[in-house]
Amino acid sequence: MNAQSPGDETMPTRIRELPTWVISRVYAHSHRLLNEGFAAAGVRGYHYRLLAALEDSGPASQADLGRRTSIDRSDVVAALNELAEMGLVERSADPEDRRRNIVSLTRAGAKQLPILDRVLGDIQERVLAPLSPAEREQLLRLLHRLLGQGP
């Protein structure tokens, strides 16, 4: 990875050496790769997150999916509309509350998920290529700690 983008070398050292600056540059690089990889597969990151949540926990309401994937409610609806048009999910009325939709993964969606997993795995490999397996594990542990999710 070339975490440097045009202009980084002229960025004042006091900024260039800040962890927040470096994290933001790595994020920008990895986000670009994710967008490109998913676009080549005909989907977006939101699509993957929703499909993965459905595969992981089964059918769910749109609101639950939004909470589980940290996607805004209006974005969930738009992304689910796109996934339904692709035949990857289907909506049905909740038998307990007909005003609410339950979203399910279709067979096509279940088949698409491993393909997207490979796309995501390739991107992870590209981002983390300079690191050894032990360094990758350490990085992930440290990032989780920064998020308050680990020891």
Describe the structure.
This protein is mainly alpha-helical and 151 residues long. It has two domains: 1-40; 43-126, Winged helix-like DNA-binding domain superfamily/Winged helix DNA-binding domain (Arc Repressor Mutant, subunit A, Orthogonal Bundle). Helices cover 64% and strands 11% of the residues. The protein has seven helices and three strands; from the N terminus they run αααβααββαα. The chain has helices at 13-16, 19-40, 45-57, 62-69, 73-85, 107-128, 133-146, and strands at 60-61, 89-94, 97-105. It has a three-stranded antiparallel sheet. β2 (89-94) and β3 form a beta hairpin. α3 (45-57) crosses α4 (62-69).
SSE diagram, text form:
Blueprint: H1 13-16, H2 19-40, H3 45-57, E1 60-61, H4 62-69, H5 73-85, E2 89-94, E3 97-105, H6 107-128, H7 133-146
Antiparallel strand pairs: 1-3, 2-3
Structure summary:
The protein has 151 residues and is mainly alpha-helical.
Q: What's the main sheet like?
A: 3 strands, antiparallel
Radius of gyration: 19 Å
In the predicted model, the low-confidence regions spanning at least 5 consecutive residues are none
Q: Cα distance, first to last residue?
A: 29 Å
**What is the count of structural domains?**
2
Structural category is mainly alpha
- What's the level 1 CATH class of the largest domain? Mainly Alpha
Order of helices and strands: HHHEHHEEHH
The fraction of residues in strands falls at: 5-15%
Number of DSSP strands? 3
Instruction: Tell me the name of the CATH homologous superfamily of the largest domain.
Output: Winged helix-like DNA-binding domain superfamily/Winged helix DNA-binding domain
- CATH architectural designation of the largest domain: Orthogonal Bundle
Average pLDDT rating: 91
The CATH topology of the largest domain is given as: Arc Repressor Mutant, subunit A
For the largest sheet, list the strands in their spatial order: 1-3-2
Which descriptor suits the 3D outline?
Answer: elongated
Helix content: 55-70%
What is the tally of helical segments? 7
